[in-house]
Amino acid sequence: MSLKAEVEKQVYQILAASKPTSKSLQAELANTETPTDLNHNLLADELYQTLLKQIKATMDVKSILSQVITFTGLCRSNSPVDLINLSISGTDKVGFDIQEQHANWNVYFIQRLIHDKWLLGDVILYKHRPETKNAWPAQWNLFYDARSNTLYSLDSCRKLVATVSKNSTERPILNKTYDKQITVTLLAAYDLVKQECFDDHIKQLKSTIENTTFAIGSFGLFKGGVVVKMANGCDKRLPHRVAEIYQFLREMEQATDTGKKESLWKKIHQSVFDALDNPRYFQKESTADFYRSVLIMGGLATYSEPSNQGNNKVL
Questions:
Q1: Is the pLDDT assigned to residue 310 strictly greater than 50?
Q2: Do 7 and 138 belong together in one domain?
Q3: Which residues contact 282 (CB under 8 A, 6 or more apart)?
């Protein structure tokens, strides 16, 4: 059975269980902007499980993202009967609405893959304002891969995944696809979004360390971890790299120089990668989950390109 046929079969089997009429089913899927809008949450999860079958351990990040946009093209349609890729037009609202739904489904699938540790990074929605007067903006996604420090642009309507870094050979493809030097704009957009979220992220990480009881392994009389004096003056036993990260976070709070903060943030990343790639014998999975959370800024929702008046949104 083809992937398209399997997706179609799942849609019918899952939704038929609640016996909706064909008209109401079509209307529900057509008006669904995000997977969480569905009354049938099982559908979204089943589709994700089908997507997982297409993901292989040998795939790199770009290959995984390519699988995501291909799969979104199969399951995000105005017609539950055909489940086809829809043509789009950047100059009409219908085309924009379809792009928005594609982008929201991409976010859902990628966030699930991040949670399940297939990917490590952040995904956001990106709204692009065309140069053409009165044209509806295009919408697609950006994914920041924390391990390789690489920004990807992924657009399931146009079936395009490309890297956005300054030295990427794929930049001309992106610039040709959209109506201006989009790669410069994409890099600037993601930097702005990171700046908007960065301080809150640092505060949240520090608070998490202070308020979390970390599971620390022991062997006989030997206790793992290290005792650290917290900001409130109390002593607390932490895993070694968590203690190291906490110290860097406290130094970042005190730092007033941007260069100093960036240097400390790089040291935190080095500690995290060391902890994930070379875990200590007693490292618990809950501690590994904390390390991954350091690299995921989180909460990066939507960036809209500025209009001629210069106003833009990071929501």
A1: no
A2: yes
A3: 216, 217, 218, 219, 224
